[in-house]
Design goal:
The complex is a heterodimer. By secondary structure, chain A is mainly alpha-helical. Chain A folds into two domains: about 55 residues, no CATH class; about 30 residues, no CATH class. In chain A, α3 crosses α4. By secondary structure, chain B is mostly helical. Chain B has two domains: about 90 residues, Rna Polymerase Sigma Factor, Chain: A, CATH 1.10.1740; about 100 residues, Arc Repressor Mutant, subunit A. The longest helix of chain B is centred in the C-terminal third of the chain and has 30 residues. Chain B is elongated and about 65 Å long. Classes of the chains: A mainly alpha, B mainly alpha. Chains A and B meet through β1, α1, α2, α4 and α5 of A and α3, α4, β1, α7 and α8 of B. β1 of chain A pairs antiparallel with β1 of chain B.
Chain lengths: ~90, ~200
Amino acid sequence: MMHHDHKNCYHILDSLSDYVDGELREELCHEIERHIADCEDCRIVVDTYKKTIYLYHETVGEPEIPSDVRLRLFRRLDLEDFLGDAIEETHE
Amino acid sequence: MTNQDRTEAHFSLEALQNGDQAEFARVVEAYSGYIYRLALKMLQNPQDAEDVLQETFIKAFHALPKFQGQSKISTWLYRIATNEALMFLRKKRPDSISVEANLQDDNDEDKKPLQIVDWCCLPENELVSDEARQHLDDSITQLPESLRLAFLLRDVEGLSTRETAEALEISETAVKTRLHRARLSLRENLTAYYQGQILERA
C-alpha cells in the first residue's frame, strides 16, 4: 500500500473539511484545486474523503423505530392514548 | 429544508410548556426515530438505544416548562440524547477515559501518513453491500466518543455546524476540528477495507 506523507501537502489536508462543506474562501478552494490537478495522491485523498462522507449520508436511510420500541416508549411516557392519533398523523 | 425543519414549525411551544400531552405526543412521534437512530449508532445495542430513547423523552417532558425555544426542539432533544448516551457509556465502562482525554490539541494523529488507494472507482453495489454497511457502522464505533458524536450529528443526522455545537455544548470551531478528525479516521478505515475488496477483485 502506498502512503502519502508529503509534508507540503498537509496544509491542503487542514482545509479539507471546510473545502468539502463549501465553507472555504474561494481563493483557497482554487489553491486546492490547482494542487490536486498536479498531485495525484492528494487528489485521491480528497476524492475518498468526499466519498466517505457521501457513503455515510447515502446509507443512513429514513429514521425508523421498530413498532414494539415505539409502543413501549409511548407507554413509558403515559402517552398510550395518543398512539392511535399519532399513527393516523404519520400516514396523513 | 430537511424533514426536521419541516416538522419544527408545527409545534406550539406554549402548549408544550403547559404540559399538553397531545402536543408532546406529536413531538415524540416526529423525533423518536431520529433519536433512536442516533442512540443505536452511538451505542450499537438495541436495548441500550431503547433505554436512551426513553430517558431522553422523559427528561425532555420534565424540562419542557423551562424550554424557551432558543434552540430548535430537534437540537434540544439531540442535546439531551447525547448526554444520556454518554452517561450510559460511562456507567457501562466506569473506568473509561473521559471524552476530552483523547482530544488534546496536538495534531499528531492528523499528521500520520495517509493511505493512498483510489477506491472511489468501485461499483456502487460493492461500496454499499451489506458487508460494507456493517463495516461503515463498525468504523463509527471505533471512533472516540466525542468524534463519534460530532460525526453522527453533523454527517449522519445532517445538523448544521451551529446546531451540532449547540447539541454538544461546544464551540463551532471545536465541532469542525472533531468532525475533520472523525472524517479522516473513517476515510483511513474505509480505505483499508475497500483496498481489500479491490485486491479480491484482482
